[in-house]
Amino acid sequence: MKTNKILFAAFAAVSVASLHAAVPEVSAVTMSQDANRLVTITYTLADAPAVITLDVQTNATGDVWASIGGEAVCNASGDVWKKVGADLTEGNSGSYTISWHPDLSWPDHKVAAGGARAVVTAWALDNTPDYMVVDISNAAQPDTQTYYPGAEFVPGGVSNGLYKTTTFLMRKIMAKDVKWTMGSTTLEPGRQSAREATHQVTLTNNYYIGVYQTTQAQWALIQTANPTPSKFSNAEDCAMRPVENVSYNEMRTSADKNANSAYYWPADPNPDSFLGKLRTKTGIDFDLPSEAQWEFAARAGNGDTKWGNGSGIVNGYEDANLKKLGRYKYTGGWVNNTTSPADTCRATNGTAIVGSYAPNSWGIYDMSGNVWELCLDWYEDNINARNGAVNINPSAPSKTLSGENGSTRVSRGGSFGSDAGSCRAAYRAGDNPTYQGRDDGFRVACTAGLK
Q1: DSSP designation for 331
Q2: pLDDT at position 9 over 50
Q3: What torsion, rounded to 10 degrees, do the Cα atoms 38, 40, 41, 45 define?
Q4: Cis omega (within 30 of 0) on the bond before 341?
Q5: Rg (CA), the chain
Q6: Other C-beta atoms lying within 10 Å of the C-beta of residue 380
Q7: Contacts of residue 131, Cβ cutoff 8 Å, sequence gap at least 6
Q8: What integer is the mean pLDDT of 246-261?
Q9: For residue 397, what are the CA distances in angstroms to 157, 295, 388, 402, 403?
Q10: Is residue 384 classed as helix, strand or coil in its secondary structure?
Q11: CA angle 357, 362, 366 (to 5 degrees)
Q12: Which of 126, 130, 174 minimizes the C-alpha distance to 22?
């Protein structure tokens, strides 16, 4: 029996090109809807593999079209949201199909002929879309990550608990060849002049960074031999709190807290470390960010004297603007225990569930507070020598917190027990690579673009 279809005659096709990768071309886009309201979109991709994304536009006024919203099309399946045409070469093409169920999320899911169009976008492999979702569940397979052009396209929205438990949600940072000033000036409250001396930085690559700090649930899926290291593993909703009480060495260089110098950057992580196992499981070059990558992402385009959302830094101790952005000492992170002469922290008042506070201007959460985040770099206490320098890769130490070269690794962002001044994007601290602290965690980063 034949199925009646509504044919959408209006459509658009777009290519997002690159200066380096072969340029993919999309053509011959069609869109039709059957009697069961299933929409089928076909297209031709030529000349190169590409990451394919989709939008649907309607409500035409003259030549003006409006998107129905990414949240309405993110359930599309088939040859979309991923790398398509793996074997395509210049001069060759292939035909591909997308299926879309508009009735699942779009109330006006049946329109008159000519009233909607599909926009199929081909992204060159070295210029992949803004968001990447990486499955790390028990059933996950390597090289199955998906891509979305904006936060509104991310399935379930960026606050979906899946992105805090069984997947990593990654945000692309456009940093390549951007010259910016790292550090702080005397205008910034809480500044430590030697540690935060200003210097010009130009990063060599765009990169992805985790929207959230790595959680206890994510750690447990990768490091099955040590699934619950955290001091706050009995806290409410602990699975979605950041993992802590793990050392730099466990993250990158070893299966335990003991160092293995054979895996120091720029060598790949130890296959038995968290990052090594994560690379094996996903096929992606995950690592810690360098401190320059970390600070660039934390600032989110906001400069000196600003928090990551653009609000002003007004106090080095208790800052009303920081209260909107993160768990720190004055948002319930630190609780005085009157039975002890020292401040201690109750499990229910230590870390917060990742994403509990507002994101910075680039949609990244908890860059200020919650847990300190370890970076690739060796720590050096005085960076005045960097003034005027171009800092593009993890640094070698000239002087460390303890005075011994190569003894500590950089940590950034402050924690639930920190004053506001320690949560600033410019603030730098150092931890011994063997240190396992209840306020030390990390977020992952990786190269932007497919190989």
Answers
A1: G
A2: no
A3: 140
A4: no
A5: 24
A6: 22
A7: 147, 148, 149, 150, 151, 153, 154, 158, 169, 170, 171, 172
A8: 95
A9: 41, 18, 17, 11, 10
A10: helix
A11: 30
A12: 126
pLDDT confidence of 450, banded at 50, 70, 90? Answer: confident
Contact 346, 336 (CB under 8 A): no
Q: Token pair for residue 321? A: 């603007």
Express each pLDDT in 76-134 by its tens digit: 999 999 999 999 999 999 999 999 999 888 877 776 677 789 999 999 999 999 999 99
Q: Write down the pLDDT at residue 372.
A: 98
H helix intervals, 46-124: 70-73
Domains of the chain, first to last? 5-127 (2.60.40), 131-451 (3.90.1580.10)
DSSP string, 248-295: HIIIII-SSSS--GGG-TTSPPPTTSHHHHHHHHH-S--BPPPHHHHH
- With b meaning 16 or more CB within 10 Å and e meaning fewer, what string describes 315-329? bbeebebbbebbbbb
For residue 111, the model assigns a pLDDT of 65
Residue range 377-386: mean pLDDT, rounded: 78
Distance (Å, whole) CA 170 – CA 375: 17
Helix or strand holding residue 392 (H, E): none
- Reading the block at residue 104, the tokens are 């699942």
């924690």: which residue's tokens?
Answer: 415
Q: How many helices (H) and strands (E) does the chain have?
A: 5, 21
* φ, ψ for residue 57, nearest 5 deg: -120, 150
- Pairing type for strands 372-378 and 440-441 reads parallel
Q: Which of 274, 281, 268, 280 is nearest to 255 (CA)?
A: 274
Question: What residue type is assigned to position 331 of the chain?
Answer: T
What is residue 366's predicted lDDT score, i.e. its pLDDT?
Answer: 98
What is the token pair recorded at 8?
């959408």
Q: What is the DSSP string of 115-159?
A: SEEEEEEEE-TTS--SEEEEE-STT--TT--EEESSGGGSTT-TT
Does pLDDT of 407 surpass 90? Answer: no
Nearest-angstrom CA–CA distance, 352 and 288? 21
pLDDT-derived band at 393 (thresholds 50, 70, 90) equals confident
The amino acid that residue 49 corresponds to is P
Q: Let me know how long the chain is.
A: 451
Is a pLDDT exceeding 60 seen at residue 440? yes
Position 295 pLDDT exceeds 90: yes
Strand 199-202 and strand 179-182: pairing? antiparallel
| Distance of alpha carbon 228 from alpha carbon 306, whole angstroms | 36
For the chain, give the mean pLDDT. Answer: 89
Return the minimum-mean-pLDDT range out of 234-238, 368-372, 431-435: 234-238
CB-CB contact of 158 with 194 (8 Å)? no
